[in-house]
Amino acid sequence: MSGNSDPLTPRAKLAVTAGKAAAAVSRAAGRGSGSVIGGRVALKLDPDLLARLATHLDVILVSATNGKTTTTRLIAEALRAAGPVVSNALGANMPAGITSALAGGSDAKFAVIEVDEKYLAGVARDTDPKCIALLNLSRDQLDRAAETRMMAEHWREGLAGSKAVVVANADDPLVVWAASSSPNVMWVAAGQMWKDDAWSCPSCGGVMQRPGDDWFCGDCGFRRPTPTWALSGDHVLDPHGSAWPIHLQLPGRANKANAASSVAVAAVFGVPPQVALERMYQVQAVAGRYDVVQFMQRDLRLLLAKNPAGWLETFSLIDPPPTPVILSVNARGADGTDTSWLWDVDYTRLTGHPIFVLGDRKLDLAVRLEVANQSFQVCENLDQAVQLAPPGRIEVIANYTAFQDLRRRVGN
Fold this sequence. Notes:
This protein has helices at 10-28, 35-45, 49-54, 68-79, 95-103, 120-127, 148-159, 173-179, 253-268, 273-280, 308-315, 362-371, 382-388, 400-410, and strands at residues 58-63, 85-87, 110-114, 131-134, 165-169, 185-189, 208-209, 216-217, 229-232, 235-237, 243-245, 292-295, 298-304, 325-328, 355-358, 376-378, 394-398. It is α/β, with parallel strands linked by helices.
């Protein structure tokens, strides 16, 4: 802890103690990590606790629709080269979960915090971050989150005049619009595979022009900024034009993009690209994502995809046909109860794969696959799907609560 003064008042200390006790009870009852209930109890006792816990930390916030949990983990690994890190590594990314995470970091120098898009402005106000990473914005949880352009506007208003260095994806027009209200932005060319949420200009509503990797609005002149950092194939290009090779154990182009943004964040705190990338190589899985597990004498690779952009990225990294694929979709509170997003996913990319469907909303998914002319089998549970799957490693793709269900079943 920097300085000699303890930033926690007696009330704050009581709140932290009570929160940890509530979390311990929740864990003992088998209700999960307890971070959310612990944070809620603590904030009830001291509503200013999050701000108090952040006062001695260099706070880095990470927000996006896709990739924030992985990027948070990559940044945390990189910054450990410069000092102890506290992070909400399990993805509890609303104020209660964030408060719980910071309550366990009294000896940390850095706090690397994943933040739900909806809560970014409020958490930034409470924690006075040194750096904010903005990766992308796309449709997700349609019944809970605002329409993407409204979310971008919410970010833009919340970040106006922020003292933080904002590390933002230059290839996502919605992120650029949101970040442009900040006086200190570092642009990263991280790419944008899913473009269906950014065809109209967030500034004026005009039609976006997209020649090659560039984009601009022909009506108002809003355009892609010149990036300082860039993902180029398997390398990160730094502000001087030097190319640093990316070696990750995490698969896919999306994770190279996450690494590029993470390298830029680490550089803000003086960690060189080579050191940051070496540390990122240690990450093999993130909260169970990308793990290969043994179940019923079969290898299963667990992949999380919770919205159209995420499914598109995931389809790009699975093994080619005839690799069997299990798809599982729920529509519980944490997923969003509206499954209309399934119609935005291009399931023709699975042609040639034996497909097995399960989850609470397996029939919704079955209808979508039928329309996409895919052959599939609806299964009652994971055990049945694995029994029916032909030989070879099985790719298992699930949305949020379905993914947690599968992890419990395979003992991961």
